[in-house]
């Protein structure tokens, strides 16, 4: 039996999960596994970077689930600081460059996994490359930011963007003693929520001493004589002094290689795959993680949702399939949770604008409740907004903002969405109740009750 | 239009929810509502009593969701300290006794709701009626226990029973500075869990300084010369000194009236209803709360599951139906959560013995994980056990024991059970992930992955 070669491009969550799972299923005599990774690290939690910056996580190594040595010990030929610069699909080979020596060589494959991840959006603005301007996408980024934190004397930070990374970095910088200003383009922070729910985040952030500036389009970063950022300028002409600037504007799929090779990309630029995570139209090429689009089961279309948890699942599915097993990734419902200091933020399914874009007619209901029985000590409030389809009452989405216990409650809605439940069915769900954990009607059920009423009131 | 009269027997969660919901739908000209309640209180959280005893909840009134005055102000004719002593179904009337004066009278009804609740099991043992022996079922019970706490000098408490009430009362008494011994009949505390999971509770309780005694059958409570409990004796001959004894042995449906009237009862003695919560075979009699059996959707049979959350839902459904609306209670999956000090305990669906009793063949898997990313500060462990049907892989049950975030994770399984998902489907669920809230693979998903493997290994 000839040994097959699996080549994996990208050694973080999706790539290394795929390699590891393939290795579990097939030994080195059956399958040679080569992984090319351009950075210095593998299998790390990029989502943990804000907590490392904030100081809750002591060291970089804590974010590394498995070291290169551990992967190599399991029979994976891992080549760090080696960047794949060309895919030759017809020839079944990839061209890789050693980033230290600059030398290049071709490596043939029988099966190929593209796990090239995403790259932070960096608008081409004057000063964007200045010292003191940081992305937080990779562990290398995080290390640079940590190093800079040690050196920086000033205590004014500007965070550009108020999505997950933006608000998490705002918290991290507050913990580091910075005065933090968050500039964001929309009406409210957290544009992954509807604006009425984003407004709650806005109020809470201001209450924490985090300044937020809405409708702020950054046009330039001013630098001092040493080339270090000193202020962020917006289209409105405002100048926000900054001893440190953090970019949390979002990411886009890193698919230049795939595009050059003619592989199918969606509207976000993410690779399109089938349910087994095989690139559409390809026999031997798989892809997963932040470089692909995933099927949104509620909207009925593919979207780019870069999240570590999906990347890990993709890797597991790809590894099973290239290792001779069988697994699929059926899609997502758009669940995401985050927090900024004590405020928990969660969403799943469709926002109002998503529902409209999907061609759905819907009703909404919003309720206030508490995470525990209201008489239980430390009970904190939460707001739950629910969307349901008109006429059918099918659950379409849930957003939650509030104190302890708010965020993970969204999981109930995520499962109900996956199952295609109506809000009537949600009202009857048998959720855990005891005073330290929930009011007698769980907040999600209270929201469902009110949504049921809204569905009926809306009629046909 | 003639005014109809709704008579409700029992003024706690189910009864008052039914009355309130009926009143929302129908005004006083259409519907007269009379509620008979034998106790001093209405609409209180019996589940909150342990936290009132423990001191986390300052006063009794905090446990009362709505006072008699509030109910009366909404047009509900509430008669406290009035016990219904006979149902005349053929005559459409109930006989009630004023517990203060002893006088009795008949009241006619057009529609009748039986919400008589449950009563604590009190084995007929010598000394069971002694001073210092307490149940914690009603607010009156709780008041007596609180009063006794003030008087009692000794600091040794014996709790009989290690179910939800038993472990919650153990925590409450520890908080009150008692040395607590819990006597329980089974091999492990929390017999609502499988013994392997109960063993984790046992170990944790011992670690908290709570003594537990397994296989302990109480035979007698010894009293002192003043008639106060001084020790609890077990069948093994052990004598456990006690300055206070709390009975948490469980409850049984309070259905003597219903039985006398010939209404249909299940094997637990609970009333049997249809899906609209109408008593089976009756046109105008509804019942809900702790006095009914509910349909267990996983086991495919009715069971007695006294829980405030179900009682509130039953009341809502009954009130909608007697008020001219339409609602149903489709059943439960057996979800319950609790805690003893910092240990969270949760279950849903079937235990091994339940699955066997239901005629199901199954596999199990147990995993260890953490409530947050393992590198996040304060990460605490949890153990998740999962049961799935052989061959089909259908999820049958989940049990979780662990630190912060353990208990409410069971809700994910509760929804998946309701939807009839397989463990393969559970693996693919899109649950909220961020380091402060979950590892990249949520513990429930990790358990599902291992269970998938177990299902495949078990073959057909």
Task: Please work out how many helical segments of chain A DSSP would assign.
Answer: 12
Q: Which protein chains are joined by the largest interface, and how many residues does each one contribute?
A: A-B, 65 and 65 residues
Please give the share of residues in helix of chain A: 25-40%
CATH topology of the largest domain in chain A: FAD/NAD(P)-binding domain
Number of domains of chain A: 3
Largest sheet of chain A: 5 strands, parallel
Tally the beta strands of chain A: 25
Which spans of chain A of ≥5 residues are poorly predicted at pLDDT below 50? none
Radius of gyration of chain A: 23 Å
SSE inventory with pairings:
2 copies of one chain form a homodimer.
Chain A lengths: L3 E6 L3 H13 L5 E6 L12 H6 L13 H6 L3 E3 L2 E7 L4 E6 L5 E5 L2 E4 L3 E3 L12 E2 L4 H13 L4 E5 L3 H12 L3 E5 L11 H13 L3 E3 L4 E6 L5 E6 L4 E3 L2 E4 L3 E3 L2 H5 L24 E3 L6 E3 L4 E3 L4 H15 L13 E5 L2 E7 L2 H6 L4 E9 L10 E9 L5 E8 L7 H9 L4 H5 L15 H16 L2
Task: List its traits.
homodimer, 460 residues, FAD/NAD(P)-binding domain, 3 domains, 5-stranded parallel β-sheet, 25 strands
Description:
Two copies of one chain form a homodimer. Chain A has helices at residues 13-25, 49-54, 68-73, 139-151, 164-175, 195-207, 256-260, 308-322, 352-357, 410-418, 423-427, 443-458; strands at residues 4-9, 31-36, 77-79, 82-88, 93-98, 104-108, 111-114, 118-120, 133-134, 156-160, 179-183, 211-213, 218-223, 229-234, 239-241, 244-247, 251-253, 285-287, 294-296, 301-303, 336-340, 343-349, 362-370, 381-389, 395-402. In chain A, helix 1 (13-25) packs parallel to helix 8 (308-322). A five-stranded parallel β-sheet of chain A has the order 3-2-1-7-18. In chain A, strands 9-16-10-11-12 form a five-stranded parallel β-sheet. The first copy, chain A, folds into three domains: 4-118 and 252-322, FAD/NAD(P)-binding domain; 122-249, FAD/NAD(P)-binding domain; 336-458, FAD/NAD(P)-binding domain (3-Layer(bba) Sandwich), CATH 3.50.50. By secondary structure, chain A is α/β, with parallel strands linked by helices. In chain A, 26% of the residues lie in helices and 27% in strands. Chains A and B meet through helix 8, strand 21, strand 22 and helix 10 of A and helix 8, strand 21, strand 22 and helix 10 of B.
């Amino acid at each position: 039996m000839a040994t097959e070669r699996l080549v994996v491009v990208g050694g973080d969550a999706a790539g290394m999960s795929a390699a590891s799972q393939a290795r579990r299923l097939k030994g080195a005599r059956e399958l040679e596994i080569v992984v090319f990774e351009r950075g210095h690290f593998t299998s790390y939690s990029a989502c943990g970077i804000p907590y490392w910056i904030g100081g809750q996580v002591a060291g970089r190594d804590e974010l590394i689930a498995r070291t290169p040595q551990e992967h190599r010990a399991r029979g994976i030929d891992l080549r760090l600081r080696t960047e794949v610069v060309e895919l030759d699909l017809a020839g079944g080979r990839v061209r890789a460059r050693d980033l230290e020596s600059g030398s290049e060589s071709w490596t043939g494959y029988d099966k190929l996994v593209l796990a090239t991840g995403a790259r932070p959006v960096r608008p081409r603005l004057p000063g964007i490359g200045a010292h003191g301007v940081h992305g937080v996408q990779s562990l290398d980024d995080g290390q640079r930011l940590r190093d800079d934190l040690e050196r920086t004397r000033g205590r004014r930070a500007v965070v550009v963007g108020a999505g997950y990374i933006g608000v998490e970095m705002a918290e991290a910088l507050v913990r580091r003693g910075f005065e933090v200003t968050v500039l964001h383009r929309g009406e409210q922070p957290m544009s992954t929520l509807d604006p009425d729910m984003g407004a709650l985040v806005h109020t809470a952030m201001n209450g924490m001493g985090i300044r937020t500036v809405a409708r702020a389009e950054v046009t330039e970063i001013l630098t001092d004589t040493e080339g270090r950022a000193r202020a962020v300028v917006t289209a409105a002409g405002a100048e926000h002094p900054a001893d440190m600037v953090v970019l949390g504007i979002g990411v886009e799929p890193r698919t230049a290689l795939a595009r050059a090779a003619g592989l199918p990309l969606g509207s976000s630029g993410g690779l399109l795959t089938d349910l087994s995570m095989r690139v559409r139209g390809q026999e031997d090429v798989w892809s997963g993680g932040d470089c692909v689009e995933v099927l949104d089961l509620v909207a009925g279309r593919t979207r780019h949702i870069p999240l570590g948890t999906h990347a890990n699942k993709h890797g597991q599915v790809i590894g099973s399939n290239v290792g001779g097993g069988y697994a699929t990734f059926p899609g997502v419902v758009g669940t995401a949770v985050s927090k900024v200091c004590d405020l928990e933020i969660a969403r799943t399914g469709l926002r109002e604008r998503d529902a409209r874009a999907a061609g759905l007619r819907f009703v909404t209901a919003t309720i206030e409740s508490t995470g525990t029985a209201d008489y239980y000590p430390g009970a904190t409030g939460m707001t739950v907004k629910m969307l349901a389809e008109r006429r059918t009452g099918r659950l379409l989405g849930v957003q939650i903002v509030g104190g302890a216990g708010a965020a993970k409650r969204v999981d109930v809605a995520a499962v109900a969405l996956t199952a295609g439940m109506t809000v009537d069915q949600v009202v009857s769900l048998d959720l855990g109740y005891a005073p330290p954990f929930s009011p007698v009607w769980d907040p999600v059920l209270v929201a469902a009750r009110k949504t049921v009423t809204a569905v009926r009131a809306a009629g046909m």
